[in-house]
Design brief:
Blueprint: H1 2-8, H2 17-33, H3 37-71, H4 75-89, E1 91-100, E2 103-110, E3 119-121, H5 125-129, E4 158-166, E5 169-178, H6 184-207, H7 221-229, H8 236-243, H9 247-260, H10 266-275
Antiparallel strand pairs: 1-2, 1-5, 2-3, 4-5
Length: about 280
């Protein structure tokens, strides 16, 4: 009786209990119901990373609010904010600028851009980006007039330029250059920061002393670029390298600037450019 029962049993004979557990539990349950351990670990690491990023964003706004509450807006606060953004997003170069009298005045900077107080003419792409009404978007084009580094020197360079505006009216520009692309959540944070900056800087734009730059209308766009760089004291060769033209063309532009503005030499032209607010300390 017992021997007949064992003969009919499918798992009788030399089968071990470990084999039974493997065939019955592992094959029927684990493969169907449990995700692979590697996928589970990846999901956990990704969720932790996202949580840390969100926490860093929250801390940034918390600290910004505290500083505003205690001290209000200042140049030191703008520099702190730019340094925090560059650190969070891995940006080696950055700037916060304010639009005034047809130029962008650098209020805070980091890396290879012009010093604080320098003015960059709003020509070409800059003029298009800050043309009113301002669009709520990010621009990825590299603009040589904003930075003192060459685009072909960095193999992995991602440019982000966000207009600073209030009620779709130009107030300034935030620029970052990173080694890795920014995520949508990071860009959303930058848009929020630009909204705060636009509201805060609007009053400064309205109260700033007006500069009579009507004579600049006599100059062509390229002549304005040369004129804006004259206070740096750079040679024609250095100016040519910066603007991507030949030294002979730079010389011709300077001669035309002197003629149109009724000036005797490039020293007077440099002084005139400083009076207009262009204070380039270097290329």
């Amino acid at each position: 009786m017992h021997s007949r029962w064992f003969a009919l049993c499918p798992w009788s004979g030399n089968k071990k209990s470990t084999d039974i557990g493997s065939s019955v539990y592992t094959k029927r349950h684990m493969l169907n119901d449990s995700p692979p351990p590697t996928e589970s670990a990846f999901a956990l690491r990704n969720a932790l990373k996202q949580s840390q990023v969100q926490l860093a964003h929250d801390r940034l706004f918390e600290r910004l609010g505290q500083k505003l509450f205690m001290h209000g807006w200042s140049e030191d606060l703008l520099q702190w904010l730019l340094d925090e953004l560059c650190m969070q997003f891995g940006a080696a170069h950055g700037l916060i600028s304010q639009q005034h009298a047809g130029a962008l005045k650098i209020l805070a900077q980091r890396g290879k851009t012009f010093p604080v107080g320098a003015r960059v003419p709003m020509l070409g792409a800059l003029g298009q980006w800050l043309k009113e009404p301002i669009h709520f978007e990010v621009h990825a084009q590299f603009v040589p007039s904003l930075w003192t580094l060459q685009a072909n020197t960095s193999p992995a360079m991602h440019c982000y330029h966000l207009p600073i505006a209030c009620q779709q009216r130009a107030v300034g520009l935030l620029g970052l250059i990173t080694g890795n692309p920014l995520s949508p959540s990071n860009l959303q944070l930058l848009h929020s920061v630009c909204g705060l900056l636009g509201f805060a800087l609007q009053g400064h734009s309205q109260t700033a002393t007006a500069i009579d730059d009507s004579y600049l209308q006599k100059l062509t766009p390229r002549e304005r670029e040369v004129f804006a760089l004259l206070p740096s004291g750079a040679s024609n060769a250095a100016l040519a390298q910066k603007l991507g033209i030949s030294p002979g063309t730079v010389k011709i532009h300077i001669e035309r600037i002197l003629s149109k503005l009724d000036l005797n030499d490039r020293t007077q032209a440099a002084v005139k450019a400083v009076e207009a607010g262009f204070k380039s300390d270097g290329l």
